[in-house]
Amino acid sequence: MRWRLLILAAMALTLLACSKPLPDAEKLETIGGMYEEYSKAFPDVPALTPEQVTDEMVVVDVRTDDEIGVSRIAGAITEAKFRADRNGLVGRKILVYCTIGARSGEYAEGLREKGFDAYNLAGSILAWTHAGKPLVDAEGKATKRLHVYGKEWDLAADGYEAQW
User: Fold this and answer.
1) pLDDT tens digits for 62-94?
2) CA distance 9 to 95
3) What is the pTM for the complete model shown?
C-alpha cells in the first residue's frame, strides 16, 4: 500500500517539477489530493483543517530539527518535548503536523492506539500557509520561510520562501 502512495507522490511531484509555478488554488488542490492519498494509510485518524485548530490544543511538530529550525507553527512543541511531557498531556486534544500530513498521520495513529485524543492537521504546514496562519522562526519571530523537500514540494501559499 505504501509503495503505491510513493509512486503516486513521485508522479505528482514529477509533473509539478516540469511545469510553471502553480497558482495558489492549484497548489491547495494538489496538497488536498496528496493528503487524501496519504491519509488512506491511517484511516482511523481524524483530520482537522487549520481553521479548526484552537489555542486549547497541544500542537506537536513531528518534522526534523532542520525543518523546525526554518519555521514552525507558533506554540507548537517538538515530538521530543511531547514524549517528555506526555503523562501531563493525557486527556488533552493533540494536533500533530508535518509538511503535508503523512508523517504526522502515522504519529497521530500511534498516539490514538495509546489512548490519546490525537488528530492530524490535514495538509499540515503547507495547508496552514494557505489558511493565512502564522509561522515563527527559531527565535519565535514571524517568518515567511518554510522548509520543503525540493522545488516540487514548493506548495506553500504565495509569499512564502521555500527552503530545502
Assistant:
1) 999 999 999 999 999 999 999 999 999 999 999
2) 24
3) 0.86
CB environment 38-50: b (16+ within 10 A), e (fewer): bbeebeebebbeb
pLDDT per position as a tens digit, 133-149: 999 999 999 999 999 98
Neighbours of 52 (CB within 10 A): 13
**Could you tell me the CA-to-CA distances from 97 to 23, 37, 67, 90 in Å, in that order?**
24, 16, 12, 18
Give 45's contacts (C-beta < 8 A, 6+ positions apart): 39, 105, 108, 109, 112, 118, 119, 120
Buried b (16+ CB within 10 A) or exposed e, 107-123: bbbebbeeebbbbbbbb
Determine the Cα–Cα distance for residues 134 and 115; give it in Å rounded to an integer: 30
| Burial annotation 77-101 (CB, 10 A radius, 16+ → b, else e) | bbbeebeeebeebeeebbbbbbbbb
Cβ burial of 144 (10 Å; 0-12, 13-18, 19+) is middle
% the chain with pLDDT above 90: 84
What's the rounded Cα separation, in Å, for the pair 80 and 98? 14
Question: How many angstroms separate the CA atoms of 96 and 128, rounded?
Answer: 12
